[in-house]
Design a protein that fits this description.
Number of strands: 0
Oligomer: single chain
Number of helices: 5
Structural class: mainly alpha
Strand content: under 5%
Shape: globular
Helix content: over 70%
Largest sheet: none
Length: about 80
Amino acid sequence: MWALIKDNKISQGLDSLGVLGIEQAEQYYNEAYSLYKSGKPDEAIAKLETSILLDPTYEKVYNLKGNIHIEKKEFELSQ
């Protein structure tokens, strides 16, 4: 996936996603929350990063991501 980001292919298609992108962002957030509750914080963070790419305005994502980093004592990443 990061190769696609590097080549700027994802950002080119994000504008055309519209509502679909918002719905997908919420789906990734829900998956991340489940992973977090299952004791898989690193996998949860990966899902949250994808959610942010799909909808950078989705506030719940940043809150959960910050909380996970705080629990992992990664304070510099929790902002």
